[in-house]
Amino acid sequence: MALSNEQYDALMRQYNHKQARNNQIVSYRTDEVYSAIPALSQLDEEVSKVSISSITAIFEGQDIAEAAANSKRKLAALKEKRAAMLEAAGFPADYLEPPYDCPDCKDTGFINGKRCHCFKQAAINIVYKQSNISTILSKENFDRFNLNVYDDNYFEGNSDVSARATAQIALERAQNFVQNFKTNGGNLLLLGQTGCGKTFLSNCIAKALLDQGVSVIYFTAFELFKVFEEQTFKKNSSVEELNDQIFDCDLLIIDDLGTEFQNSFTTARLFQCLNERLLQNKSTIISTNLSFEDMRDTYSERITSRVFSYYEAIKLIGEDIRIKKVINK
User: Fold this and answer.
1) Torsion of Cα atoms, 34 then 36 then 37 then 42, to 10°
2) In the chain, what are the domain boundaries?
3) Is CATH 3.40.50.300 the classification given to domain 128-327?
4) What single-letter DSSP state applies at residue 155?
5) CA–CA gap between residue 179 and residue 293 (Å, rounded)
6) What is the pLDDT of residues 141-150, one digit of tens each?
7) Residue 130 near residue 258, CB atoms below 8 Å
8) What predicted TM-score, i.e. pTM, was given to this entire model?
9) Which tens digit of pLDDT belongs to each residue from 255-301?
10) Alpha-carbon radius of gyration of the chain
11) Which residue(s) pair with 216 in the sheet?
């Protein structure tokens, strides 16, 4: 569903509450620090005077660049002195900085008039109703990734790399993807048969990136194409915002590609989705049971070419973990 006025207002109230909370904390800490370090109050007054003098200098006709440089230099020296005074009294250097939940937008929800990633994710959580995803991610994350569920004596074809060793490699590459995501972005293609842990691994990545403030949206292939169908054929305005978020979120996860009902519409929309996200440098993770040949036969040469050219492939092998868990109970 698209954000209603009530939902938007509710989100903005949350941000207003955060800002009020931050101001209250800073006010309390300021009183605490001024009481412990009386000289700090005088230093802060000096900071205010420097800021005002730089503005006054501009109105008096002084060189703007020179006035700004002088002000910046004085403020940096005062800031350094302020931090030293705080630390000398046993306080952290940033003790009087607001404790933002999102330092990027300073808990306003917007950066330069555009929605911050934290706002986008909050909207996704409402629109997509991802509370069930949150529950899943509390159980499926890197802390709970267990290599022991993979058989060290299981091999595929002529490979001498076991299922457990393959999973170890996949885990390391997934963690590296998360570590470098904010600077490098990238796309992943998770390959493997049913039950080998592809969804679990994509959930691990989702949880880690959500914790970093990255906007993430997860769909099974069936759910993704259902949104496209609702928006295209039924002109369903309730999925319009969700459709926009598919193209706009930092990371889109498409799980179980190839299990949906395939036709010319799904092929065309898949190409549009993947191609548009590549053009916008937005990251995508696809998990599928399909091989290269199966994907080419199921969709098209141009889709397969883009995926295998622009996506880093990570493979998992082994017996169905879910069935093994049931048998071993």
Assistant:
1) 20
2) 5-109, 128-327
3) yes
4) -
5) 32
6) 999 999 999 9
7) no
8) 0.70
9) 999 998 888 999 999 999 999 999 999 999 999 999 888 998 989 88
10) 26
11) 251
